[in-house]
Amino acid sequence: MVERVMGSALVAAVLLCGCATTTRTAAPATKVSVAANDTAWDGTRVPDGMQCGQQAGREPATPPLLVSGIPPSAGRLVVEFNDESYNDTDGAGHIGTVFRLAEEFGVDADFHVDFFDEPDHLHINEIAEQTVKASWQGRVTVGHLTELAALRPADQDAIIARIKNAGIGVISLPATDLYLMGRHDESNVRRGLTPIRRLMDVGVPVALASNNIRNPFTPVGTADLTHMAFLAAVAAHMGTPDQIRQLFAGITVNPARMLRLSSYGVDVGARADLVLRDCDTVEDVVATLPSPVVVVRRGQITVECDHRRRERWRTA
pTM for the full model? Predict the structure, then answer.
């Protein structure tokens, strides 16, 4: 699964929520146990009355959960909801569950949140509040956050200030968000990206990633994150040399900061994970998408690329 191409150790858990009728179990790399801590929930159906409002539930609910088996090396906990309506029916409750699990197991938290054209949810406010309450600053990231772009500038700034105060990292997913957002607009179609430049300008760490690769949500692309920076330069109106360097940081130092990698960077003593590209400047990496020449992982060359180009017109 290439969901966030940032090299983190992730543990996935699937929650049963009020609009689902059966449970789905992921196949994690390690044996993680997720069980409902309520005898009314037997794992095969939602108890009567607790279904979501779309299914005539009187009191929609998510069961309390017991999670065990998260390995000590896990970097963060990723929680997915198998709600058949796709949208959370109890956003604040789910967010609280994630934070309780994060605190219990001492792991970071990552949310896919507010992924709509209109600002109908803005769960980011609850996430920011819970982050500060749990003293989890620097350990929380949010992906998509496209609803933020639908607000007036003053309202955006107010929420961005909360994001910064909570130490939350924002992950923009340009290929997915550009493809899916604004689909019902018949004219003046919205771009549907979180306000990358506005976030970066006030010091919120922004990473650029790929939500999926060549699936129904993102039908084109590769795992090369320079393509995401290229897309963001155009879609977010970030074309000056300084802005392009900011986008380059969005695929390098900013993700490393969110993952709290202590040995990252081109420095003596840092882990030698490098990609060498055939270009002259940092801006060229984003602007021209040069091919990799050498890939180094932990000090060992793992990939070498030979590119031969003949410009016959020069000698004609």
Answer: 0.75
